[in-house]
Amino acid sequence: MKSLLPGEFAPETVYLDTAAFGLPPKRGLTALHAALHDWGAGRRTPGGDDEVDRLRAGFTRLLPGATPDDIAIANTVGTLVGPIAAGLPAGAEVLVAEGDFASVTNPFRYHGNLRVRTAPLERLAQEVRPSTALVAVSLAQSADGRLVDLANLRTATTAHNAHLLLDVSQAAGWLPLHFADADYWVCATFKWLLGARSVSLLAINPAAAELTHPTSPGWYAAADRWSEMYAPRQLATTARRHDSTPDGLGVLAARIGLDLIDELTVEAVGAHDLALAQRFRTGLAALDIPAVPGDSPIVTIPGEYGRADRVEAADIVATTRNNFLRFAFHVHNTSDDVDRALTALGEK
Ligand SMILES: Cc1ncc(COP(=O)(O)O)c(C=O)c1O
Fold first, then answer.
1. Which residues cross the membrane (predicted)?
2. Which of 7, 124, 165, 260 is the most exposed place for a label (fewest CB within 10 A)?
3. For residues 14, 18, 23 and 27, what is the CA-based torsion angle, rounded to 10 degrees?
4. Given the CA of residue 78, which atom of ligand 1 is nearest to it?
5. pTM of the prediction?
């Protein structure tokens, strides 16, 4: 199995670490170099509202049913979860998954006036109760790639009138998504979307927009930002009210990464990534190395089998998380990458 985009990526290592940070495509780097040049030459500062609009539109293509008006932009996932926490009534119960990524749960945990209840990922749907106001969970777990059973969870949240926030930072780009399946969608662009560390997106279902509250609106969140810079009148009436001033270079990189995924199609990317992960899982089984089960391009193995030092010595980039060694397979990877990782792990 070849790279889906031969010529677009130039890793000098066996890069199996998209779950930590995606590789930038060449077309993104070329555009960034040009933008930096123009900036340095004093001709054009990086960024522009048109690129932000294109990025919002790109995200709606990954989330069929959403419109650009439903999309807010900020630097981080944690920042974008804040307005959802701020909109909940005092004392509301938020259900989260044990071991989920901190940016998904901290805005609720440290809000000061919310009750956070934790349950194992596998039991999340059963744990939704009439007292639950919101469930906040990563669709694909960052630590080990496990997927939440979305159909069951959505049935449970609907039955109990609870809202659902999904973090799709580890899922968007390879897993088909549908806007109607959750009330809020938050996503970092720097992993599977091949974007930038400084750009994250939030999609808000209009029916659940009332329950969000802007936490730190700057000039960029105003209804008419250019005329209200010194004369505030009102915040945008769309999800843009949760925008914070974007980093132009990041937006450019994120827009190009997203367009590239769109061009390949999420279905083709998912098939490629999952096939490589499956090849890896089959090879691990033959080596008697256990892996956390799941149908995900993120594969983790217990640290004692992973021997991070051995993997690193073979010039393979993977990450240790929670005493597990985590491998992630994406568009630039090939079967040869998988086999090199298996060889390193199998060496006595
Ligand atoms: C599931 C998930 N959400 C969010 C993030 C990033 O969060 P933030 O943008 O707040 O740093 C990561 C990884 O860095 C992640 O794995």
1. none
2. 7
3. 120
4. 10
5. 0.98
pLDDT at 347: 84
What fold is seen in the domain 46-264? Answer: Aspartate Aminotransferase; domain 2 (3.40.640)
Predicted pLDDT of residue 303: 85
Mean pLDDT, all residues of the chain: 97
Residue 347: C-alpha distances to residues 263, 280, 324 (Å): 39, 15, 18
Kindly give, in sequence order, each residue whose CB lies less than 8 Å from that of residue 77, ignoring residues fewer than 6 positions away: 103, 104, 167, 169, 186, 187, 188, 200
* Contact (CB, 8 A) for 172 and 200: no
- Which sequence spans correspond to the domains of the chain? 14-24+265-346, 46-264
Q: How far is the CA of 77 from the centre of ligand 1 (A)?
A: 6
Handedness of CA 330, 263, 165, 155 (dihedral sign): negative
| Integer Cα distance of 55 and 177 in angstroms | 17
- Residue-wise pLDDT for 257-274, tens only, equals 999 999 999 999 999 999
Q: Which two tokens stand for residue 127?
A: 């744990």
The structural architecture, per CATH, of the domain 14-24+265-346 is: Alpha-Beta Complex (3.90)
For atom 13 of ligand 1, which residue has the closest CA? 20
d(CA 243, CA 220): 6
Q: Tell me, in angstroms, the distance from the centre of ligand 1 to residue 274's CA.
A: 21
Percentage, residues of the chain above pLDDT 90:
95
Residue 142 Cβ < 6 Å to ligand 1: yes
Q: Scanning the structure block, which residue is given the tokens 């090199």?
A: 340
